[in-house]
Description:
Blueprint: E1 7-10, H1 21-30, E2 34-37, E3 50-53, H2 77-92, E4 97-100, H3 102-110, E5 136-142, H4 147-152, E6 156-161, E7 167-168, E8 176-181, E9 186-192, E10 198-201, H5 215-231
Parallel strand pairs: 1-2, 1-3, 3-4, 4-10
Antiparallel strand pairs: 5-6, 5-8, 7-9, 8-9, 9-10
Amino acid sequence: MSVSRPRIGVTRWEDVPGERIEDYWERIEEAGGKALDLRDAKVTVTELNGLVLTGGLDIDPARYFNAPHERTRCAEAARDDYEFGLLQEALAADLPVLAICRGHQVLNVAFGGSLLQNIETSNHRADYKSEGAPSRWHEVTIALGSRLHGAIGAGRVEVNSRHHQGVVADGVAPGLKAVATSPDGIVEALESESHRWVVGVQWHAERPEPEHPQFAPLSQPLFQAFLAAAMRQPEEVH
Length: 238
């Protein structure tokens, strides 16, 4: 079944100053979807054609059986409960999922993986000492044959970075495949091996980053691939 303008649910929990939820909505609309703010919209997963998990504060490490690191700043418990439950419903319905930054980490933990709670080097974090807290930047290597590679069409790209936690190789969950890594070994993208289209990226693909004009053209095909998957729905999803 084809859907002309997919309804994409976007989780919302504004717990990081300076992050714009509108950036997610705009990228979805540009790619041909209808963005639904799940904080306000009274919809169920069966009314959606796709799900975007957004950035934010840290996941409670108890969810992956760790004690908290001194630098861990947990989001509200209600956010963890809501997003993990929503993701499980979306996976059960085989909805396309695009998981960004914290969402990428939620995806890994939901599948049974773990996180490195604090990356000791600062090259992955936003530059909070500079005005506007600009992103830092680094290359990632993308696996050939992955959905991500098929969308972006390149094996090595430069991406933004605004996180202090991450997924590392020995913490990747069963059922997920690492499909992009940074030079220092952080897993920058994950894909489900048993769902139609489930992709997590550690970078903030939604940000326009006007100081890096090559970034938006890199991100646009990722949202287009996600929306293309959302247009092709199983008959049982309405």
